[in-house]
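Proteins fold reproducibly. Take a sample protein:
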Amino acid sequence: MKYGARVNRAVIAIAGAVTVVLVVFAGGYGYHRDELYFLEAGRHLDWAYADQGVFTPLVARITDAVAPDSLTVLRIPAAIAAGLIVLLTGVLARELGGSRRAQVIATACAAVGVIVLFTGHLLSTSTFDLLAWTAVTWIAVRAIRTGDDRLWIAAGVVLGVGLMNKPLPAFLAVGLLVGVAIAGPRRLLRNRYVWAGALIALVIWSPWIVWQQANDWPQVDVSKEITAGGSTSAEPRWAIIPFQVLLISPLLAPVWIAGLVRLFRTPAYRFLAVAWVALAVIFMAVGGKPYYLAGLLPALLGAGAIGVDGWLDRGRTRARKATLVAAVALSAVIGAIISLPILPEDGVDPVLALNEDVGETIGWPELADQVAAAHRRTPGAVIFTASYGEAGAIDRYGATRGLPRAYSGHNAYSHWGPPPPGADGAPVVVLGYRLSMLAAHFEGCRVTARIHNDADVDNEEDGSAIVTCTRVRGSWREQWLQLRHLG
């Protein structure tokens, strides 16, 4: 395949515009439950946590130190990451032999993609994971095109940093290995720079591995819960491939599908297509989430844009160009409505059917208000929550409402508890549990209120019970092992 032209300045402009738009909308609605969790994890910095690495909590800690309690500043790194993903998608089109117009097509498709806009709007492990996959893929393609084996060292560094964010890039490494073993170039399997890069990635990742081993591998338990459907973003196994159509836009799915076909037909880069198929099979087998496969979409868009570029010059060129522009424009509108805080809070219910995470950015201050009211009626009570999002909301908003820190048995919070022995006889305000589930662990429990948000958004917390109990049964330390849960 002929090497493409210089990077089009429009690629840089589009990527920059994505970052600017995301920063402008960064302050909309409120914190996502995961962001509240990352902020608290950043205050408990460690080499790893039950469900992630240290990278995103470290970013949360840095941004919170720069501008405490600023939602916009917290989300700026994600906006920058999204812009880089868009930029690298255009650069991938160039590396794969695309013209300047093909680069713009690939960049525009990525810029309006739901997966890019939504993960770029929130501080999330998924944002940096998508960037890591895209960057490693780009470096791999460039290394093969140029023959510069030293680039595999850089790929190892990026892979290692990505693994310190979350372990998913390990699947990318496996997928690329399978792709190369099946489709070539098999000389890479004997390349010392490739294995040196792999060793570097492993060394960077080793603190996470050591922490997991020392704590009985909680990440494995989290993965089992996800496989069993114990996650709000889990989908049926069969949905992984159909779900890919939604991750960019149904209107633009033909672009990346064409890219997959094109890569299968291009010997030098066929390994990417084989890797995509291999990972789709792996994620279906292990019950992974559909977005796990999104990290290869930039490469597929880059390849597909080359085919679209040629298609535009055949037949009725004016009609074809208008069709592409309309598909990108309509996708931008749909993607923005689904991903960004454009609608008023009380009008987001239609969006929840497509993106339920939007609901998890609404109502946290009201939750803290209602828990504070319950706590005032029960002075000195311990606050215990079912999820890290609820605990994170108390820790973020509680101090100004006279609340103590929250405890939870969920994921990393389970490592930061239990309450001290002096709290064994104290009353407890429990949030997020059904009353029937509490009798084994607490005494004298009764429902005293129900959580409700002012926008009347039907999110996971809306309608959940606030329960007041007279005390924990026995001691917190005795109950803590049973109260811990991962997922």
Notes: The longest strand covers residues 446-450. The chain has two domains: 9-339, 363-483. The chain has a mean pLDDT of 95.
